[in-house]
Amino acid sequence: MKQRRIRLSKSQREMVIRWIAEGLQTDEINKHAARCAEPFKVSRQQVDYYRKKCDKDIKEISKQDEFKALNTGLALRSVRVEKLRQLAGLMELDLFGQLLWVDRFKSVGGGPNFMTFTEKEFNKAEVDAYSRILDDIAKELGHRVHKTELSTDPAGEIHVTFHNPYAPSDE
User: Fold this and answer.
1) Among 19, 69, 91, 113, which is least packed, fewest CB within 10 Å?
2) Nearest 5°: phi and psi at 41?
3) Is residue 102 a contact partner of residue 50, using CB atoms and an 8 Å limit?
């Protein structure tokens, strides 16, 4: 028995084309379509039809989406650096507010000899994480660029030279 093709409205067609451009398959498209204000369903044949018919539109939508993904939000170095700075600021408040030490509770003994006491412990894990955040900021800003050059002299000896453009100069 031949299945009757359901005619899509213009807005539904546009949504299907956008979802095809995002790389979704028929079942995924149907899941999205079921959540719409006016739920609808498409067949695999309809998806194939739109995939072929709207190939140029789909490629253009994909290109626009890729451009947007590469040029907004966390794709931008300035945004990543700002987020890292915010995280570093929160860690500084926590670390320096607690003076780098945290309370650690210990219990010893059992029965009537059971005791609980508190001791101070250096917060090494958070200090290490803070250090990695600062390193990430430096990398994002290009301050961790190191260049290595290999060369040979006339005698055939190999020489390795390390360059860091951000290192203090001897001048």
Assistant:
1) 113
2) -140, 145
3) no
Amino acid at the residue 119: E
DSSP 26-76: HHHHHHHHHTSSS-----HHHHHHHHHHTHHHHHHHHHHHHHHHHHSGGGS
Residue with the two structure tokens 């044949």: 45
Which residue type is seen at 107? S
| Angle separating helix axes 44-53 and 26-34, nearest 10 degrees | 100
Confidence band (pLDDT; 50, 70, 90) for 47? very high
Coil, strand, or helix at residue 162? strand
Parse the chain into domains and list their residue ranges.
Answer: 10-71, 77-140
Q: What is the pLDDT of residue 163?
A: 64
* CB count in 10 Å sphere of residue 114: 9
What is the tally of helices (H) and strands (E) in the chain? Answer: 6, 4
- For residue range 61-87, list pLDDT tens digits in order: 888 888 887 777 767 778 888 888 888
Task: Give buried/exposed letters for 66-95 (b at 16+ CB in 10 A, else e).
Answer: eeeeeeeeeeeeeebbeebeeebeebeeeb
Q: What is the pLDDT of residues 17-39, one digit of tens each?
A: 989 988 899 999 999 999 999 89
